[in-house]
Design goal:
Layout: E1 13-15, E2 23-30, H1 32-44, H2 48-55, H3 57-64, E3 65-68, E4 75-80, E5 85-94, H4 107-113, E6 115-121, E7 124-128, E8 134-136, E9 144-145, H5 146-153, H6 159-169, H7 181-189, H8 192-206, H9 211-242, E10 247-251, E11 257-261, E12 270-274, E13 278-279, E14 283-286, E15 290-294, H10 296-299, E16 305-308, E17 317-318, E18 327-328, E19 333-338, E20 343-350, H11 356-365, H12 373-403, H13 408-422, H14 427-444, E21 447-449, H15 454-457, E22 463-466, E23 478-486, E24 489-493, H16 503-510, E25 515-517, E26 520-522, H17 525-534, E27 537-542, E28 547-552, E29 558-569, E30 574-583, E31 587-596, H18 598-604, E32 605-607, H19 611-622, E33 626-635, H20 646-649, E34 653-662, H21 667-678, E35 682-686, H22 691-700, E36 709-716, E37 719-725, E38 735-736, E39 747-749, E40 756-758, E41 760-765, H23 766-775, H24 780-786, E42 787-791, H25 795-807, E43 812-816, H26 822-827, E44 830-833, H27 838-842, E45 845-847, H28 854-892, H29 899-918, H30 938-963, E46 977-978, E47 981-982, H31 986-1001, H32 1003-1006, H33 1020-1038, ...
Parallel strand pairs: 22-35, 22-43, 32-34, 35-42, 36-41, 41-42, 43-44, 44-45
Antiparallel strand pairs: 1-2, 2-3, 2-4, 4-5, 5-6, 6-7, 7-8, 9-17, 10-11, 10-12, 12-20, 13-19, 14-18, 14-20, 15-16, 15-19, 21-45, 23-24, 23-34, 25-26, 27-28, 28-29, 29-30, 30-31, 31-33, 33-34, 36-37, 37-38, 39-40, 46-47
Helix pairs in contact: 7-9, 8-13, 9-14, 12-13, 12-28, 14-28, 14-29, 16-17, 19-22, 21-28, 28-29, 28-30, 28-31, 29-31, 29-33, 30-31, 30-35, 31-33, 31-35
């Protein structure tokens, strides 16, 4: 039997569970009988089945295949978390035997069978095991211990092992699929809308209707070509960014140096990096020496970074994200490699799309599906129009069939024509023109977009998340002061003091990740600022086994050599170094210096800590200053430095002092935040900085309003507690509130405004945020709605924050500039990058103005684009209904529009007005609230429904008055039959003329201008088209010239009374339409009634919408209530 098995009989396999790449896989194997049936259906339907199932590949797979286990499958259907569906072919590759290389985790399983079954999804390979499990083939960094790394580094890879691993991992090249321009045109033309256009144009050409279809074809072709060209340029840019294969030097399994093409690199290869640098063709672990690397193309950071040779504790497993200090990544440029020889060695661990660069590229090529309510509703509405078109087609078939004198072919074509009327084929062209104008408006403000579909989404944004450093504040940091701990007080150390024995100054001179480049010391701005303050100098030397950095004091009497470095990690908030301090007068023991966030450093100190430090720290961070702490301890001179772990040295420390930095707020930050606030867009900060510093900057830019109480949420013994953060000017420390506190909190809500204000906000750290997500999920909506400052947030925390905010109904924007923001920029509904590096390519929008003034402009243009698209959509929909009603009415009288009548309606009137709407200029001010982000607002539905009734009534009245005219004659007596119709008729004159007026009048209730666009009278294109079209219509009704009568096929004798009646009905129609629109928009009782209907509909939603949570928070003090319940 054809349908023997159910998909449910076989287990669905979840792959990459718990990650953003999670998907479900289903297996299918071929069914020859179903395949034959499929191709027969394709032939019988003229390719329609093939086209439809091309849009739904998973349905095609289910139709032509039988479900089966994954181990038996010939293809798999993939269901991603974002709702996208894919079908991938299962491949089998024979794997050659590897004789001389130890295997890594899954390779031993493949060696047993010498073959591998896999499928490729979004450029990554997934291995299908015998037990039906699926595993992503990533590289050699999974479960890679120190001993395994040492084993792999002891020898290179033989040719047989290269072939073995290449068969598993594929060629080492990020192959961006740049297809020809014509292929991209064909892919765009396969869009359902364009396919429907082909169907419509075919019918129209059969009927002899040529002019309007030709214009729409021209515009649609222009849109297809423009979209294809944009796609081609983006793919070419990505292809250029990836780079081309090159020859590299490697060590083989017997230690000989060989030349190999970078395409042939496999995990386990020993790559030799020359001293003058190279572009990295893979991800690799640095085994010796050191490298200075420019990672700007990958992370967006403007300064080079240092990479150290691999050092890891025995019981620690290598992880690429956690051990970036030792990892050279694909696509980065090694500026210098330092070693005693000509090369430094590195161990290849990841290749092709498994690398970080590859994953970024594939995310750009395969973005997550857009979840924009307006788009979904637009497609649903078009589906509804299609349903009405089918009803109209059946009605037409019955009515025309009863009247006789029409062939079957004419009957079918005229009936199908109704569908092309109610579903407007010109809609994509009109919307495409609107998007093109929106892109040009953004470009005029130095904002560039690589994903035009997101422009309309910017109009629905109601929350924007900002990074701090480099976004709200300047990139550079200036050392404001250095404070050493002396005799239970902090003493200011002035720049230039020659106290070379000062431990704090010595720590500033050596506890960093700086390096020499072109005769200058370069690196992170924080490190360079500290090093410059110390006045010490740097020397770099290489030995056979290692690369060393030495710091020399200003007097050259003392030298500090860095023996081992534990790099800064965001999750740890600190870095440490082990140094050898040498003096010409005496030898000294080894010493450890550790710097990082004050709260982290102080937690490791056993001496030198008192309350004055916390008070000083509070004062400086309240002022928005960035503060780092330094601590130190000594080690035995005979300690084995290489074997010491981080845990062993980071204990028993003595506090040295604090370094205070000034990070100035950018001039545009405060004014832009205020503009967004006035425009109903909430602003939130997410930063990796100290909480108090973040709160101070948030107050400066008024993310936290001046009179707003800030609560610091924190965890104590698994319980959520809070303290009040006092205003900066009060200089008071935070006071812990008791659980039994009865202090009330008032919530201010403007009922007629989109801005819902609390008189307090919250600030918390990434650790607290994660703890709430894990153990206090019921409080998460409250936290998200009341928190304005998220501090100590890791890149992953920022990305999760975007998802959580979207989950409760926010439409979220993100603005950032650095490596930490790439994930969040992609996760937000609209991300704008203040960077011209690769992070900008990963974000939908890029600003060449490096401050957040671009954000209000983006929101303003987004709102203008959204209301423009809505206006066009509503107008084209009403125009289609007008023509739909008119044609069905005329079918009853066995008449219809003439070809030129359709041309006048479709092109000169409707299409011209749709284009005029797109030419409206954006309002100079950001409106107090955004436009509705949905088409299904009850107010819009009621407005359109009532207008449709009115339009239909006036068309019927026009037909009635035409039949009562003194000169009236039936269509049968007026002219010849053409394609089954008597075109010359009084009914046609009256209804078509009435339709012409309605095409003009419906622009006004559909056109939304203020406060998002400039007033209608300032749109010169619209005014010009309105005057010309109204004049043409009035003349065609009152005094049609002979050529007008001929092309529109009007009767030769039309009474003046009928003409005046049509004019009067037209004017009455206008006033009724405007009156209905005014009633719906302005009448308080009607608004109240519609609002209650809207509320009832929204209550049916299962998700906790943020507005509902705001209403709940207006009646309770959730902070105190939640703490009491703990």
């Amino acid at each position: 039997m054809l349908f023997l098995h159910s998909v449910d009989e076989y287990e669905k396999m979840k792959v990459n569970e718990g990650t953003e790449d999670e998907f479900t896989a289903h297996g299918y194997h071929r069914n020859n009988l179903r395949t034959i049936l499929f191709w027969l259906l394709c032939i019988i339907t003229g390719g329609i089945v093939w086209i439809v199932l091309r849009w739904y590949p998973e349905k095609r797979a289910r139709f032509v295949n039988d479900p089966c286990s994954l181990s038996e499958a010939h293809c798999v259907t993939i269901y991603a978390l974002d709702g996208q569906k894919y079908v991938e072919e299962v491949k089998e590759v024979s794997v050659p035997l590897a004789e001389d290389q130890s295997t890594v985790h899954f390779e031993s399983d493949i060696l047993k069978d010498l073959k591998m079954r896999y499928f490729v999804h979004m450029f990554l390979r997934y291995r299908i095991c015998c037990d039906d499990t699926v595993h992503e083939i990533t590289g050699h960094d999974q479960m890679l211990s120190k001993s395994k790394i040492d084993e792999l580094a002891s020898q290179g890879v033989s040719p047989t092992t290269t072939n073995f691993r290449k068969a598993i991992h594929g060629s080492n090249h990020i192959e961006v699929p740049v297809r020809s321009f014509f292929v991209y045109c064909a892919q765009e033309a396969a869009n359902p809308f364009y396919v429907f256009q082909v169907f419509s144009f075919t019918l129209w050409f059969i009927e002899g209707y040529i002019y309007y279809p030709c214009v729409i074809i021209l515009i649609s072709l222009t849109s297809i070509v423009a979209t294809a060209y944009q796609t081609l340029k983006q793919m070419q840019k990505l292809h250029k960014m990836v780079g081309q294969p090159c020859n590299v030097q490697c060590l083989n399994n017997v230690g000989e140096q060989v030349t190999k093409c970078s395409i042939d690199l496999v995990p386990g290869d020993i790559l030799l990096i020359p001293n003058d640098g190279m572009d990295m063709p893979c991800d690799s672990i640095l085994l010796e020496g050191a490298c200075v690397v420019n990672e700007s193309s990958l992370t967006g950071e403007s300064f080079p970074v240092s990479k150290k040779s691999f050092e890891m504790e025995t019981d620690v497993t290598y992880h690429l994200e956690e051990h970036k200090l030792y990892t050279l990544q694909y696509g980065t440029h090694v500026l210098q490699a330092r070693s005693s020889g000509r090369y430094v060695r590195s161990l290849v661990v990841r290749t092709n799309f498994c690398t970080l660069k590859g994953r970024l590229i594939r995310r750009i090529i395969h973005p997550k599906a857009l979840k924009f309510q307006a788009y979904r509703e637009a497609f649903r509405f078009l589906g509804f129009l299609g349903f009405l078109g089918i009803i109209g087609m059946i009605f037409s078939f019955v009515v025309l069939g009863r009247q006789g004198q029409i062939t079957i072919g004419e009957l079918v074509v005229n009936s199908l024509d109704v569908i092309t009327i109610i579903v407007p084929p010109g809609l994509p062209a009109c919307l495409s023109v609107g998007i093109i104008f929106a892109l040009n408006k953004l470009k005029a403000h130095d904002i560039f977009c690589i994903d035009s579909q997101r422009i309309n989404m910017c109009g629905d944004l109601n929350l924007f998340v900002f990074d701090k450093t480099g976004t709200l504040t300047e990139d550079h940091l200036e050392v404001k002061g250095v404070y050493q701990k002396e005799d239970e007080e902090l003493v200011n150390v002035r720049k230039g003091d020659q106290n070379e024995n000062n431990l704090l100054i010595r720590g500033m001179a050596c506890c960093h990740s700086l390096h020499h480049q072109d005769g200058h010391v370069t690196g992170n701005p924080v490190d360079t600022g500290m090093f410059d303050f110390s006045k010490w100098s740097m020397k770099e030397t290489s030995s056979e086994s290692d690369f060393l950095q030495s710091m020399e004091s200003p007097s050259t009497n003392q030298t500090i050599t860095i023996l081992k470095e534990f790099p800064f990690e965001s999750s740890l908030q600190r870095m440490s170094v082990i140094v050898n301090e040498e003096s010409k007068s005496e030898s000294q023991p080894l010493r450890v210096y550790m710097k990082g966030s004050p709260e982290m450093i102080l937690s490791f100190c056993v001496s030198g800590v008192d309350e004055s430090i916390f008070q000083f720290l509070k004062e400086e961070t309240d002022l928005g200053h960035r503060v780092l702490a330094m601590a130190t301890r000594t080690l035995s001179s005979d300690a084995d430095v290489r074997s010491l772990s981080r845990v062993e040295i980071e204990s028993g420390l003595h506090f040295c002092g604090l370094i205070v930095f000034v990070n100035a707020v950018k001039d545009a930050s405060a004014s832009s935040i205020a503009t967004l606030k006035d425009g109903g867009v909430r602003s939130v900060m997410a930063t990796g900085d100290h909480l108090n510093t973040a709160v101070a900057v948030a107050r400066d830019v008024e993310i936290c309003r001046p009179m707003q109480q800030v609560y610091h949420l924190k965890m104590e013994k698994d319980n959520l507690v809070y303290s009040k953060v006092k205003c900066v000017t009060s200089r008071e420390s935070s006071v812990q509130l008791s659980v039994a506190s009865t202090e009330s909190t008032t919530v201010f809500i403007e009922r007629d405004s989109p801005k819902l204000y609390l008189d307090y906000c919250c600030a918390l750290t990434g650790d607290v945020y994660n703890e709430i997500k894990r153990n206090h999920k019921d409080l998460l909506p409250n936290v998200l709605l009341s928190t304005s400052v998220y501090a100590r947030m890791s890149p992953m925390d920022k990305s999760m924050l975007m998802e959580d905010l979207k989950e409760i109904g926010y439409s979220v924007g993100m603005c950032g500039d650095g490596a930490n923001d790439c994930g969040a920029l992609r996760a937000a509904n609209a991300g704008i990058a203040l960077s011209e590096a690769e992070a900008s390519v990963a974000a939908p929008f890029t600003s060449k103005v490096f401050d957040i003034s671009c954000v209000p402009q983006l929101v303003r243009e987004g709102r203008a684009a959204l209301v423009t698209s809505f206006s066009i959509f509503k107008y084209i929909a009403l125009y289609s209904f007008i023509q739909f009603f008119g044609v069905l009415i005329l079918y009853n009288f066995k008449t219809s529009y003439s070809d030129w009548g359709f041309f006048m309606a479709d092109l000169i009137l409707a299409f011209a007005f749709a284009l005029a709407i797109t030419r409206s200029k954006t309002s100079s001010a950001l409106a107090e609230k955004g436009p509705p982000g949905r088409l299904s607002e009850i107010k819009t539905i009621v407005n359109i429904f009532v207008q449709l009734i009115v339009l239909l009534v006036f068309q019927i009245l026009a037909a009635i008055f035409a039949r009562r005219d003194a000169f009236y004659q039936s269509p049968e007596k007026m002219g010849e039959i053409d394609f089954g119709f008597y075109y010359v008729s009084y009914e046609s004159y009256a209804v078509v003329s009435m339709n012409f007026f309605q095409y003009i009048w419906t622009v006004f209730p559909c056109y939304t201008s203020e406060p998002y666009l400039e007033p209608l009278y300032k749109n010169r294109w619209f005014i010009g088209i309105f005057i010309v079209n109204l004049t043409l219509v009035v003349l065609s009704v009152l005094a049609p010239a002979d050529f007008i009568r001929t092309i529109f096929e009007y009767p030769t004798k039309i009474s003046q009374n009928l003409s005046l009646i049509i004019i009067g009905l037209g004017l009455a129609n206008l006033f009724v339409l405007l009156g209905i629109d005014w009633l719906v928009q302005k009448m308080h009782c009607l608004k109240l009634c519609l609002g209650k209907i809207n509320a009832l509909l929204k209550r049916r939603k299962k998700k906790a919408n943020y507005k509902i949570v705001f209403n709940r928070l207006s009646h309770e003090n959730w902070i105190e209530d939640s703490i009491k319940s703990e």
